[in-house]
Amino acid sequence: MRGAVSTFCPLTRLCAGVHKRLQCRGSSTRCVESFGIGPAPHAEGVRAPVSTAPAPRREIPDATVARLPVYLRVLRTLLADGVDVVSSEELAEAAGVRSAGLRRDLSYLGSYGVRGVGYDVARLADEIARELGLTQDRFVAIVGMGNLGHALAAYSGFATRGFEVRWLVDNDPAIVGTQIAERCVVALEELTRQDPDGLIVVIATPPAQAQDVADAVVAMGVRSILNFAPCVLTVPDGVEVRKVDLATELQILAFHEQRGRDDLREVNP
Ligand SMILES: NC(=O)c1ccc[n+]([C@@H]2O[C@H](COP(=O)([O-])OP(=O)(O)OC[C@H]3O[C@@H](n4cnc5c(N)ncnc54)[C@H](O)[C@@H]3O)[C@@H](O)[C@H]2O)c1
Hints:
By secondary structure, the chain is of the alpha/beta class. It contains 13 helices and 9 strands.
């Protein structure tokens, strides 16, 4: 059935070639939805598959997920500048990626743009935000209000990307109750009494305390942790931990720089 619709789909004609570019997988409904052009009449004798079942979730590679926030940032800047449509080349250049890679990334979302026209900026931004789970309110709790915690609390970039820093947490009685970045620091016990829905916990404690903090917030129902402490956290299935380690990034840069120098020496001994 899917093959039959793919072969005879009248949208090839109606979309003036766009449908081919979509590499139709047999669903003209999907084509209509992808381009927001409204339902199309179907050729005689050809029936579009009608399904009310939700489309199966497509696996998205981690590398693509990592680039989606970059695309979203660029798209929101374009929106703020009043740009309605952007070509894949323009979007790719602004995001610092190749346009073929960008098109492949966006194809995982079912976004193929319109040939010769480009992507609808607002629509694509919405799609990416939805895919990233940013249509739900997200709150951040920073645990550990030392040097790093202070810097993170003062960082305005969370709010501009839709993350409200709601809780600043420490276990030092000298710090609990003080104001940092116009917020009152609370004890960890206070945080664990809160609703975990939409909460992401940032751990900025010394490594020796990070597992205890992770255990406490997992027990309250938190499912997302961003860990700055240089240690491996053990968490149950269903809890996602991302690790940030600037020193590791520097080591990777050092590795590539050394490789580059070695390559040059091989060319010009
Ligand atoms: N990933 C990175 O790139 C990166 C960069 C800088 C620092 N770090 C790491 O971030 C962490 C914090 O660094 P820092 O310089 O801010 O340290 P810091 O000593 O200045 O601050 C740590 C804070 O954590 C609090 N704390 C300790 N145990 C706690 C607990 N159980 N509950 C709540 N609060 C607790 C302390 O009271 C203190 O205020 C360290 O693990 C450090 O190695 C990582």
